[in-house]
Amino acid sequence: MNLHQFLTPIQDICRRPGPFDRIVLTSRVRLARNLKDTPFPGRASKQQREDHLQAIQPVVEALPPMKKGFSSDLVSLEDLDRQLLVERHLISRELAKKKQGAAFVLSKDETCSIMINEEDHLRMQVILPGLQIKEAWKAVNKLDTLLEDKLPIAFSGRYGFLTACPTNTGTGIRVSAMLHLPGLVIAEHMQQTITAVNKLGLAVRGLYGEGTEALGNVFQISNQMTLGETENDIIERLNKVVVQIIENEENARAKLLESNPEMLFNNIGRAYGILTNAHVISSKEAKNLLSLLRLGLDLGYFPDMDPEVVDELFIVTEPGHIQFKEAKKMSPEERDIMRATQLRDRLEGMAKPQMSTASDEDPPSEDPEGSEEEEGPSEC
Amino acid sequence: MICNVCQKNEATVHLTQMLEGEIKKMDMCESCAQQQGVDEPGMPLVDLLVGLGPSSSEGESQSKSSVKVLSCEVCGHSLADFKKAGRLGCSHCYQVFEDQMDPMLRSMHKGIKHTGKAPKNFKDDRALRDQLAKLEKDLHQAVEEERYEDAAVLRDSIKQLTASPELSDEPSVRP
């Protein structure tokens, strides 16, 4: 089976529900592990990397949670496939750049992904929809425990799990949540939020992690410290911070609706106008406008629309996905045209946003679990 | 202001960085700054600040000579490699560069002692150590209270435990 046959259609992935998924897109926990007393991938020779891969890959493939999964080395992947996997957060950008001696294994449902010979010999991650940090930890912890019986893992009583970069040593854990925060961005509270989160030893990054821009008002919050506290301490703290940010985002939205509804309606209305009528659109512009559309959906202004469509468009308008659909390499200019076409097609027949000022009618419920059945203000 | 590195020349290059919410400052003269690669674009500032340790004043010559000598016997990673890349070469490097590890880890993390998950075989080992520590304490007490028969039994148990091959200082790291 090739990768394309294996991957779940993106619309099905977007349909998987999770707690608080209006604001928390995904939760992810990854563990870094290494074989002991043999060079880490960055130090290893080509032959050593091959040897490590031969030792690790079959063991990983045989783990019960990875059964019927997909396993491939990086050499046999096309550039476009690599990009596709990065856009789905199934492999890291760093792994995507590797060729000889690197591989990855995906579980059947694509929630577990194990990278071999990235910066460390093993990087295992579990990614789940919505706020499910604890569940993701449970699943990745299970994988790790299964693996420790089968491979000689580098561990020291003093420093814990030993990793190539000292910033990962100890628990080797990176816990992160991907949050959609248009309210805080529009209300200009984001800088303040970032500063506060940083003070707690957590990092705020863009859509693809370290060094990336926060496109489409999507921010990734993750721990930085991995040594000197337990996995549970780290998870609890991150979870608490995320719950607080959800509340702040809800409050920011409510406040915007109260104090400046016209501005909000204007933003959402323009986003709708451009997305449904553009003929050339960049990935960046598309993301930022789709974010506003998603906000409009959350607020109930698009009662007839399937809420997963926006999440789906968020991914399928990425450069790799566009080229994957067209099954060919395209120039950025060609992609911008194709992206606009896909957006118009997918959003065709979508009704205009039904918005009214707060004085006319109360905004729909701010319950974070609010479902799409909620009726928006009907008369307009 | 005197250069933090050579402690001789006037400092003209001033570095300030936020690290874990703490402000770290370094003042250097131009030649030391150049040697440390401060003028190189994309220089990893964190590594520089961390690599030199907190307000390091050990003297440059000493650290320079050790840069050449110290390297890992398992993977060949040298201290210079470590400082340059900010990465270890293999798990054994953690023992080889022990002196550098603690100050570096302290600046990055909440603590420098692992308190999280441990592999099962290591946990068994930890339990064994705990048991041993308790027996030794009991033995000490038995001797003090002149209960020599008990002491003999305890001594035998300790002998038996320490003879077991699993017990070593760093069970999972040692080759």
Keywords:
heterodimer, A: 380 residues, alpha+beta, eight-stranded antiparallel β-sheet, two-stranded antiparallel sheet, 14 helices, 10 strands, 14% strand, globular, disordered C terminus, B: 175 residues, mainly alpha, 8 helices, 49% helix, 8% strand
Q: Determine the N-to-C terminus distance of chain A.
A: 51 Å
Strand order within the widest sheet of chain A?
2-3-4-5-1-8-10-9
Shape designation of chain A: globular
Number of strands of chain A: 10
Number of helices of chain A: 14
Low-confidence spans of chain A? 368-380
- Summarize the main sheet of chain B: 2 strands, antiparallel
Average predicted local confidence, pLDDT of chain A? 90
State which percent range the strand residues of chain A make up.
5-15%
* Oligomer description: heterodimer
Question: What do these coordinates show?
Answer:
Chain A is of the alpha+beta class. Helices cover 43% and strands 14% of the residues of chain A. Chain A has an eight-stranded antiparallel sheet, covered by helices on one side. In chain A, strands 6-7 form a two-stranded antiparallel sheet. In chain A, a hairpin with a 3-residue loop joins strand 6 and strand 7. In chain A, helix 10 crosses helix 11. The termini of chain A are far apart. In chain B, helix 7 packs antiparallel against helix 8. Chain B is mostly helical. The termini of chain B are far apart. A two-stranded antiparallel sheet of chain B has the order 1-2. Chain B is elongated. Chain B is built from eight helices and two strands; from the N terminus they run ββαααααααα. The chains are: A alpha+beta (380), B mainly alpha (175).
Helix-strand layout with pairing:
The complex is a heterodimer of chains A (380) and B (175).
Chain A: H1 3-6, H2 10-14, E1 24-33, H3 46-61, E2 70-73, H4 79-87, H5 93-96, E3 103-106, E4 112-116, E5 122-129, H6 133-148, E6 155-156, E7 160-161, E8 173-180, H7 182-186, H8 190-199, E9 202-205, E10 218-223, H9 231-259, H10 261-277, H11 283-298, H12 308-316, H13 319-326, H14 332-346
Antiparallel strand pairs in A: 1-5, 1-8, 2-3, 3-4, 4-5, 6-7, 8-10, 9-10
Chain B: E1 13-19, E2 22-28, H1 30-35, H2 45-51, H3 60-69, H4 79-85, H5 93-96, H6 98-108, H7 120-144, H8 148-163
Antiparallel strand pairs in B: 1-2
Helix pairs in contact in B: 7-8
